[in-house]
Amino acid sequence: MERGTLKTAQLQMLVAIAEQGTLMAAADALNVSQPAVTKSIKELEARLGVQLLERSGAGVRLTRYGEALLRRARTVVTEIARAERELEEMKSGVERTLSIGVSLLASSMTMDDALRAFRRRLPDVRLNVYECLPAQIIDGLRDGSFDLCVAFVADSDVTAEYRVVPLAESAQVLAVPSGDPLARETKLARLTKARWLYNYTRDSLPAFWRELCGDGATLAMPLQVNVCTSQRLYTQLADEPGTVSVWPAFLLQEQIKLGRMQRLATDARTPRLTLGLMYRRELVLGASLEYFVECLRNASATSENANADNR
Protein backbone atom coordinates (compact mmCIF):
# COMPACT_ATOMS: atom_id res chain seq x y z
CA MET A 1 0.00 0.00 0.00
CA GLU A 2 1.28 3.47 -0.86
CA ARG A 3 1.56 6.03 1.87
CA GLY A 4 -0.96 8.86 2.03
CA THR A 5 -3.83 6.95 0.44
CA LEU A 6 -6.30 7.30 3.31
CA LYS A 7 -8.86 10.07 2.88
CA THR A 8 -10.43 11.99 5.72
CA ALA A 9 -13.94 11.53 4.29
CA GLN A 10 -13.49 7.76 4.28
CA LEU A 11 -12.36 7.77 7.91
CA GLN A 12 -15.36 9.92 8.81
CA MET A 13 -17.64 7.37 7.15
CA LEU A 14 -16.03 4.50 9.07
CA VAL A 15 -16.57 6.34 12.36
CA ALA A 16 -20.19 7.13 11.43
CA ILE A 17 -20.88 3.48 10.56
CA ALA A 18 -19.44 2.33 13.88
CA GLU A 19 -21.56 4.86 15.78
CA GLN A 20 -24.80 4.43 13.80
CA GLY A 21 -24.73 0.67 13.21
CA THR A 22 -26.02 0.67 9.62
CA LEU A 23 -24.92 2.14 6.30
CA MET A 24 -28.24 3.95 5.89
CA ALA A 25 -28.02 5.60 9.34
CA ALA A 26 -24.41 6.58 8.69
CA ALA A 27 -25.39 8.12 5.35
CA ASP A 28 -28.18 10.12 7.02
CA ALA A 29 -25.79 11.32 9.75
CA LEU A 30 -23.27 12.50 7.14
CA ASN A 31 -25.98 13.88 4.81
CA VAL A 32 -24.83 11.75 1.86
CA SER A 33 -26.40 8.86 -0.07
CA GLN A 34 -26.02 5.25 1.04
CA PRO A 35 -24.40 4.26 -2.31
CA ALA A 36 -21.77 6.95 -1.70
CA VAL A 37 -20.96 5.42 1.72
CA THR A 38 -20.82 1.91 0.27
CA LYS A 39 -18.54 3.00 -2.58
CA SER A 40 -16.23 4.90 -0.25
CA ILE A 41 -15.80 1.97 2.14
CA LYS A 42 -15.17 -0.45 -0.75
CA GLU A 43 -12.47 1.87 -2.08
CA LEU A 44 -10.93 2.06 1.38
CA GLU A 45 -10.93 -1.74 1.71
CA ALA A 46 -9.33 -2.04 -1.72
CA ARG A 47 -6.59 0.43 -0.81
CA LEU A 48 -5.84 -1.33 2.47
CA GLY A 49 -6.24 -4.84 1.14
CA VAL A 50 -8.37 -5.99 4.09
CA GLN A 51 -12.09 -6.33 4.86
CA LEU A 52 -13.27 -3.64 7.28
CA LEU A 53 -16.97 -4.49 7.54
CA GLU A 54 -19.06 -7.63 7.77
CA ARG A 55 -22.57 -7.18 6.45
CA SER A 56 -25.71 -8.97 7.65
CA GLY A 57 -29.47 -8.52 7.69
CA ALA A 58 -29.21 -6.74 11.05
CA GLY A 59 -26.71 -4.19 9.79
CA VAL A 60 -22.92 -4.15 9.75
CA ARG A 61 -20.16 -4.75 12.22
CA LEU A 62 -16.47 -4.00 12.09
CA THR A 63 -13.93 -6.77 11.54
CA ARG A 64 -10.79 -6.83 13.66
CA TYR A 65 -9.11 -4.79 10.91
CA GLY A 66 -11.97 -2.33 11.01
CA GLU A 67 -11.73 -2.03 14.81
CA ALA A 68 -7.99 -1.37 14.57
CA LEU A 69 -8.48 1.36 11.97
CA LEU A 70 -11.44 2.83 13.89
CA ARG A 71 -9.26 3.64 16.90
CA ARG A 72 -6.99 5.78 14.73
CA ALA A 73 -9.86 7.17 12.67
CA ARG A 74 -11.63 8.53 15.76
CA THR A 75 -8.51 10.49 16.69
CA VAL A 76 -8.20 11.95 13.19
CA VAL A 77 -11.88 12.92 12.99
CA THR A 78 -11.82 14.48 16.46
CA GLU A 79 -8.71 16.52 15.69
CA ILE A 80 -10.21 17.80 12.44
CA ALA A 81 -13.42 18.85 14.23
CA ARG A 82 -11.33 20.58 16.88
CA ALA A 83 -9.29 22.43 14.26
CA GLU A 84 -12.45 23.54 12.42
CA ARG A 85 -13.93 24.83 15.66
CA GLU A 86 -10.80 26.80 16.52
CA LEU A 87 -10.68 28.34 13.04
CA GLU A 88 -14.34 29.36 13.30
CA GLU A 89 -13.57 31.04 16.61
CA MET A 90 -10.65 32.88 15.05
CA LYS A 91 -12.70 34.00 12.01
CA SER A 92 -15.61 35.22 14.09
CA GLY A 93 -13.37 37.46 16.17
CA VAL A 94 -15.72 36.89 19.10
CA GLU A 95 -14.17 36.40 22.51
CA ARG A 96 -14.51 32.82 23.71
CA THR A 97 -16.62 32.33 26.82
CA LEU A 98 -16.24 29.28 29.03
CA SER A 99 -18.90 28.38 31.56
CA ILE A 100 -17.65 26.03 34.26
CA GLY A 101 -19.79 24.38 36.93
CA VAL A 102 -18.02 23.46 40.15
CA SER A 103 -19.53 21.36 42.90
CA LEU A 104 -19.38 22.77 46.43
CA LEU A 105 -16.99 20.04 47.51
CA ALA A 106 -14.72 20.30 44.47
CA SER A 107 -14.33 24.04 44.96
CA SER A 108 -12.39 23.31 48.13
CA MET A 109 -9.40 21.85 46.30
CA THR A 110 -7.21 22.84 43.32
CA MET A 111 -9.68 25.22 41.67
CA ASP A 112 -8.09 28.51 42.72
CA ASP A 113 -4.62 27.57 41.44
CA ALA A 114 -6.08 26.25 38.18
CA LEU A 115 -8.10 29.42 37.59
CA ARG A 116 -5.12 31.68 38.23
CA ALA A 117 -2.94 29.68 35.81
CA PHE A 118 -5.69 29.81 33.17
CA ARG A 119 -6.14 33.58 33.50
CA ARG A 120 -2.41 34.19 33.14
CA ARG A 121 -2.25 32.18 29.90
CA LEU A 122 -5.57 33.23 28.32
CA PRO A 123 -6.60 36.59 29.81
CA ASP A 124 -8.95 37.40 26.92
CA VAL A 125 -11.20 34.39 27.46
CA ARG A 126 -14.32 35.29 29.40
CA LEU A 127 -14.68 32.78 32.21
CA ASN A 128 -17.94 32.10 34.07
CA VAL A 129 -17.54 29.89 37.15
CA TYR A 130 -20.62 28.73 39.05
CA GLU A 131 -20.52 26.87 42.36
CA CYS A 132 -23.53 24.60 42.59
CA LEU A 133 -25.13 21.46 43.97
CA PRO A 134 -24.63 18.03 42.35
CA ALA A 135 -28.14 18.08 40.81
CA GLN A 136 -27.42 21.51 39.28
CA ILE A 137 -24.19 20.13 37.79
CA ILE A 138 -26.13 17.45 35.90
CA ASP A 139 -28.88 19.83 34.80
CA GLY A 140 -26.32 22.37 33.56
CA LEU A 141 -24.48 19.78 31.49
CA ARG A 142 -27.72 18.50 29.98
CA ASP A 143 -29.08 21.86 28.91
CA GLY A 144 -25.74 23.27 27.78
CA SER A 145 -25.42 25.91 30.49
CA PHE A 146 -21.97 24.52 31.37
CA ASP A 147 -19.19 23.63 28.95
CA LEU A 148 -17.74 21.32 31.56
CA CYS A 149 -17.99 20.69 35.27
CA VAL A 150 -15.62 19.77 38.06
CA ALA A 151 -17.13 17.55 40.71
CA PHE A 152 -16.53 14.62 43.00
CA VAL A 153 -18.12 11.47 41.61
CA ALA A 154 -18.89 8.37 43.66
CA ASP A 155 -18.70 4.88 42.15
CA SER A 156 -22.48 4.59 42.61
CA ASP A 157 -23.23 7.75 40.59
CA VAL A 158 -24.72 7.34 37.12
CA THR A 159 -22.41 9.09 34.64
CA ALA A 160 -22.88 7.04 31.46
CA GLU A 161 -24.09 10.02 29.42
CA TYR A 162 -20.95 12.04 30.20
CA ARG A 163 -17.23 11.71 29.85
CA VAL A 164 -15.48 11.73 33.23
CA VAL A 165 -11.76 12.51 33.25
CA PRO A 166 -10.29 11.54 36.67
CA LEU A 167 -8.11 14.17 38.33
CA ALA A 168 -7.68 12.89 41.87
CA GLU A 169 -9.16 10.40 44.32
CA SER A 170 -10.12 10.58 47.97
CA ALA A 171 -11.52 8.09 50.45
CA GLN A 172 -14.71 8.91 52.34
CA VAL A 173 -14.15 8.38 56.05
CA LEU A 174 -16.24 8.50 59.21
CA ALA A 175 -15.47 10.88 62.06
CA VAL A 176 -16.81 12.13 65.40
CA PRO A 177 -15.96 15.18 67.51
CA SER A 178 -12.69 14.85 69.40
CA GLY A 179 -13.16 13.10 72.74
CA ASP A 180 -16.69 11.93 71.90
CA PRO A 181 -17.59 8.55 73.51
CA LEU A 182 -18.61 7.29 70.05
CA ALA A 183 -14.92 7.20 69.17
CA ARG A 184 -14.62 3.92 71.11
CA GLU A 185 -17.10 2.14 68.82
CA THR A 186 -15.50 -0.04 66.16
CA LYS A 187 -18.61 -1.80 64.83
CA LEU A 188 -20.74 -0.04 62.23
CA ALA A 189 -23.85 -1.82 63.54
CA ARG A 190 -23.48 -0.08 66.89
CA LEU A 191 -23.31 3.33 65.25
CA THR A 192 -26.66 3.13 63.46
CA LYS A 193 -28.48 4.53 66.49
CA ALA A 194 -26.36 7.68 66.48
CA ARG A 195 -27.15 10.90 64.66
CA TRP A 196 -25.44 10.96 61.23
CA LEU A 197 -24.39 13.83 58.99
CA TYR A 198 -23.95 13.29 55.24
CA ASN A 199 -22.34 15.72 52.76
CA TYR A 200 -23.85 14.67 49.44
CA THR A 201 -27.42 14.34 48.11
CA ARG A 202 -30.12 12.43 49.96
CA ASP A 203 -30.87 10.46 46.79
CA SER A 204 -27.35 9.03 46.84
CA LEU A 205 -27.55 8.04 50.52
CA PRO A 206 -28.92 4.48 50.05
CA ALA A 207 -26.16 3.57 47.57
CA PHE A 208 -23.54 5.07 49.88
CA TRP A 209 -24.86 3.06 52.83
CA ARG A 210 -24.83 -0.19 50.87
CA GLU A 211 -21.25 0.42 49.84
CA LEU A 212 -20.28 1.35 53.38
CA CYS A 213 -21.73 -1.89 54.73
CA GLY A 214 -20.00 -4.06 52.14
CA ASP A 215 -21.17 -6.97 50.03
CA GLY A 216 -24.03 -8.98 51.45
CA ALA A 217 -24.55 -6.72 54.48
CA THR A 218 -28.10 -6.14 55.68
CA LEU A 219 -27.64 -3.36 58.22
CA ALA A 220 -30.56 -0.97 58.45
CA MET A 221 -29.74 2.62 57.60
CA PRO A 222 -29.54 5.02 60.59
CA LEU A 223 -32.93 6.53 61.40
CA GLN A 224 -31.54 10.03 61.81
CA VAL A 225 -29.43 11.20 58.88
CA ASN A 226 -29.09 14.90 58.19
CA VAL A 227 -27.80 16.12 54.82
CA CYS A 228 -25.75 19.31 54.52
CA THR A 229 -23.89 20.44 51.38
CA SER A 230 -22.56 23.71 52.81
CA GLN A 231 -18.95 23.16 53.85
CA ARG A 232 -19.01 25.87 56.50
CA LEU A 233 -22.25 24.67 58.08
CA TYR A 234 -21.19 21.03 57.76
CA THR A 235 -18.13 21.66 59.90
CA GLN A 236 -20.27 23.27 62.59
CA LEU A 237 -22.93 20.53 62.59
CA ALA A 238 -20.31 17.77 62.65
CA ASP A 239 -18.90 19.27 65.84
CA GLU A 240 -22.07 18.46 67.80
CA PRO A 241 -21.62 15.64 70.36
CA GLY A 242 -23.03 12.26 69.37
CA THR A 243 -22.75 12.92 65.63
CA VAL A 244 -21.14 10.56 63.12
CA SER A 245 -20.13 12.53 60.03
CA VAL A 246 -18.90 11.52 56.59
CA TRP A 247 -15.83 13.30 55.20
CA PRO A 248 -13.50 13.22 52.23
CA ALA A 249 -10.18 12.27 53.81
CA PHE A 250 -8.40 15.46 52.68
CA LEU A 251 -10.98 17.70 54.40
CA LEU A 252 -11.07 15.68 57.60
CA GLN A 253 -7.29 15.94 57.90
CA GLU A 254 -7.64 19.71 58.34
CA GLN A 255 -10.19 19.25 61.16
CA ILE A 256 -7.98 16.68 62.89
CA LYS A 257 -5.05 19.12 62.84
CA LEU A 258 -7.30 21.74 64.45
CA GLY A 259 -8.21 19.23 67.19
CA ARG A 260 -11.92 19.37 66.38
CA MET A 261 -12.52 15.91 64.92
CA GLN A 262 -11.13 12.40 65.11
CA ARG A 263 -11.41 9.59 62.63
CA LEU A 264 -13.44 6.50 63.45
CA ALA A 265 -11.70 3.15 63.14
CA THR A 266 -14.61 0.88 62.26
CA ASP A 267 -15.26 -2.29 60.30
CA ALA A 268 -17.02 -0.23 57.59
CA ARG A 269 -15.78 -0.31 54.01
CA THR A 270 -15.16 3.33 53.18
CA PRO A 271 -16.26 4.25 49.61
CA ARG A 272 -14.02 6.39 47.42
CA LEU A 273 -14.69 9.62 45.60
CA THR A 274 -13.13 10.63 42.30
CA LEU A 275 -12.55 14.28 41.51
CA GLY A 276 -13.25 14.47 37.82
CA LEU A 277 -13.94 16.67 34.84
CA MET A 278 -17.37 16.00 33.39
CA TYR A 279 -18.59 17.03 29.95
CA ARG A 280 -21.04 15.87 27.31
CA ARG A 281 -19.79 13.00 25.17
CA GLU A 282 -20.42 14.84 21.92
CA LEU A 283 -18.47 17.93 23.01
CA VAL A 284 -15.28 18.62 21.06
CA LEU A 285 -12.83 20.47 23.30
CA GLY A 286 -11.50 23.69 21.80
CA ALA A 287 -8.09 25.18 22.57
CA SER A 288 -9.27 27.19 25.60
CA LEU A 289 -11.13 24.23 27.11
CA GLU A 290 -8.13 21.97 26.55
CA TYR A 291 -5.89 24.43 28.35
CA PHE A 292 -8.33 24.71 31.25
CA VAL A 293 -8.21 20.91 31.56
CA GLU A 294 -4.41 21.07 31.58
CA CYS A 295 -4.47 23.69 34.35
CA LEU A 296 -6.74 21.51 36.47
CA ARG A 297 -4.57 18.44 35.98
CA ASN A 298 -1.44 20.35 36.95
CA ALA A 299 -3.11 21.83 40.02
CA SER A 300 -4.47 18.43 41.08
CA ALA A 301 -1.05 16.80 40.70
CA THR A 302 0.55 19.55 42.79
CA SER A 303 -2.12 19.16 45.47
CA GLU A 304 -1.71 15.37 45.54
CA ASN A 305 2.06 15.70 45.97
CA ALA A 306 1.60 18.20 48.79
CA ASN A 307 -0.85 15.91 50.57
CA ALA A 308 1.53 12.98 50.20
CA ASP A 309 4.36 15.04 51.75
CA ASN A 310 2.12 16.01 54.68
CA ARG A 311 1.22 12.37 55.31
Tally of strands: 11
The helix/strand series, from N terminus to C terminus, equals HHHEEHEHEHEEEHEHEHEEH
Beta-strand residue fraction: 15-25%
Per CATH, the architecture of the largest domain is 3-Layer(aba) Sandwich
Low-confidence stretches: none
Count of discrete domains:
3
Distance between the termini: 57 Å
Radius of gyration: 25 Å
Mind telling me the CATH superfamily name of the largest domain? Periplasmic binding protein-like II
Shape: elongated
Helical amount = 40-55%
Based on secondary structure, the structural category is alpha/beta
Mean of all residue-level pLDDT scores: 83
And the CATH topology of the largest domain? D-Maltodextrin-Binding Protein, domain 2
